[in-house]
């Protein structure tokens, strides 16, 4: 597929050529009219002039055809790129697997920030602002019923370039039948796609519970079940302190690691306070930030 900038340039060039040709024909027609009688309506051109007009019209038709073809190429390219951007797939080796971190033999010092239980009208906008200021893309595991209440926030997360994962519809911890598990994941996936066009192969079970039927269904459907290698324990919102939250993440930070944070499900003010400091410290330690799909797609 051609480069989009090149397609735009070709499109503009075609428009310019058509405009120039139309201008030439207009001037030719006027000159014909004036050569006969400037006070009369434009007469029929002579044979030579008619041939010139026919030739120019053929050129115009050709230019219009080329312009339409270029325009269709542009639309197809942009649609393809948008579909790629909104599809959070995983390599085959991770499909139907449970992942806590990624072992990278190339020793790339990368780490993924992940946020659960949102979107939240209180916390998510603040988290997005911090990530934008820091130039970081993260991964948000969203709850279906919360997305239903805050659809614009999900759209903003996607518009900002972050990855999306499925975190069930209700965020319950009990045992699920295969049918109930399917409802939890599929209803959430359908709403995410309806609102944003996103298709995600990432799933995280509520509370990290692996044996209540949800993960079994997710594995059957080739989801990558994304756990974590560093738990900030920000879910202990009443007991955790900001320094402790940061230290929890730093103690277990590792290349290829996944850090668990929350932007919903309760009071996450301490997460908001800790996040800039945590990012600064990780940067000082040489870490670069990636989304979970980027982490899984990196070469060994």
What can you see in these coordinates?
This protein has about 300 residues and is α/β, with parallel strands linked by helices. The chain has two domains: about 5-85; about 90-295, Glycoside hydrolase/deacetylase (TIM Barrel, Alpha-Beta Barrel). Helices cover about 50% and strands about 10% of the residues. It is built from ten helices and eleven strands. It has helices spanning about 5-35, 45-85, 125-135, 145-150, 150-160, 180-195, 215-220, 240-250, 270-285, 290-295, and strands at about 85-90, 100, 110-115, 140, 165, 200, 200-205, 225, 230, 255-260, 290. The strands form three sheets. Strands 3, 4, 5, 9, 10 and 11 form a six-stranded parallel beta sheet that branches. It has a three-stranded parallel beta sheet with strand order 2-8-7, covered by helices on one side. Strands 1-6 form a two-stranded parallel ribbon. α1 (about 5-35) packs antiparallel against α2 (about 45-85) and α8 crosses α9. The longest helix is centred in the first third of the chain and has 39 residues, at about 45-85. The relative contact order is 0.15. The model is unreliable at about 30-35 (pLDDT under 50).
């Amino acid at each position: 597929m051609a480069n989009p900038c090149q397609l735009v340039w070709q499109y503009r060039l075609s428009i310019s050529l058509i405009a120039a040709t139309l201008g030439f024909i207009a001037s030719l027609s006027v000159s014909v009219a004036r050569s006969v009688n400037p006070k009369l309506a434009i007469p029929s051109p002579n044979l030579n002039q008619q041939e010139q007009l026919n030739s120019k019209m053929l050129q115009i038709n050709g230019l219009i055809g080329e312009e339409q073809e270029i325009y269709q190429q542009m639309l197809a390219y942009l649609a393809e790129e948008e579909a790629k951007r909104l599809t959070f797939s995983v390599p085959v080796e991770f499909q139907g697997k449970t992942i806590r971190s990624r072992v990278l033999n190339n020793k790339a010092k990368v780490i993924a920030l992940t946020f659960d239980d949102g979107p939240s009208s209180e916390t998510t906008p603040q988290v997005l602002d911090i990530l934008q200021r820091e130039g970081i893309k993260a991964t948000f595991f969203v709850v279906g019923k919360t997305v239903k209440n805050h659809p614009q926030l999900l759209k903003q997360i996607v518009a900002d370039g972050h990855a999306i994962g499925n975190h069930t519809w209700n965020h319950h911890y009990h045992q699920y039948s295969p049918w109930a598990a399917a409802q939890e994941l599929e209803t959430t996936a359908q709403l995410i796609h309806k609102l944003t066009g996103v298709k995600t192969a990432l799933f995280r079970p509520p509370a990290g519970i692996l044996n209540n039927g949800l993960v079994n269904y997710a594995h059957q459907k080739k989801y990558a079940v994304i756990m974590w290698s560093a738990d900030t324990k920000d879910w202990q919102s009443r007991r955790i302190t900001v320094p402790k939250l940061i230290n929890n993440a730093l103690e277990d930070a590792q290349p290829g690691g996944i850090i668990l944070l929350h932007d919903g499900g309760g009071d996450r003010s301490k997460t908001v306070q800790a996040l800039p400091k945590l990012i600064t410290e990780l940067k000082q330690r040489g870490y670069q930030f990636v989304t979970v799909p980027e982490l899984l797609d990196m070469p060994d």
